[in-house]
């Protein structure tokens, strides 16, 4: 959960759910339909927040015989989640499988920080 730690915020989901349920009850009592509907939608959105989305991303979806385009998309997702090392591995795999995929080269170039890192990569 690097993004939460980087932002310095701590989410207390049970307290959020309890507060939203209280607000929703008050809105229903006062016949505030739109407020009640909004609180209900927020509660529904919080139902699926229990698992960490980064845990399933630790394994490559392409496996050993995947497509270079899948590895590229996987690398882009990892980069957006600020997971640099797995993103570099996925994008390196993408350029090995599809050497003419320029988008993968550009994403990989944005992640390379110095010449030593570039020398360590095994590129075609």
TrEMBL record:
Residue span(s) of domain Cdc23: 63-121
InterPro entries: APC8, TPR-like_helical_dom_sf
GO-annotated cellular components: anaphase-promoting complex
Taxonomy, superkingdom: Eukaryota
Name of the protein described by the UniProt record: Cell division cycle protein 23
Lineage of source species: Eukaryota, Metazoa, Ecdysozoa, Arthropoda, Crustacea
Primary gene name: CDC23_1
Listed GO biological process terms: cell division
Keywords, in A-Z order: Cell cycle, Cell division
């Amino acid at each position: 959960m690097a993004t939460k730690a980087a932002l310095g915020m701590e989410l207390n989901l049970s307290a959020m759910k309890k507060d939203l349920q209280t607000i929703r009850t008050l809105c229903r009592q006062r016949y505030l339909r739109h407020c009640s509907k909004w609180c209900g939608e927020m509660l529904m959105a919080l139902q699926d927040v229990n698992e960490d989305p980064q845990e399933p991303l630790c394994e490559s979806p392409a496996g050993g015989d995947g497509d270079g385009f899948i590895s590229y998309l996987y690398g882009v997702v990892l980069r957006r989640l600020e997971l640099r090392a797995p993103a570099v591995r996925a994008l390196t795999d993408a350029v090995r499988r599809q050497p003419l995929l320029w988008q993968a080269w550009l994403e990989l170039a944005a992640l390379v920080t110095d010449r030593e890192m570039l020398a360590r990569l095994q590129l075609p």
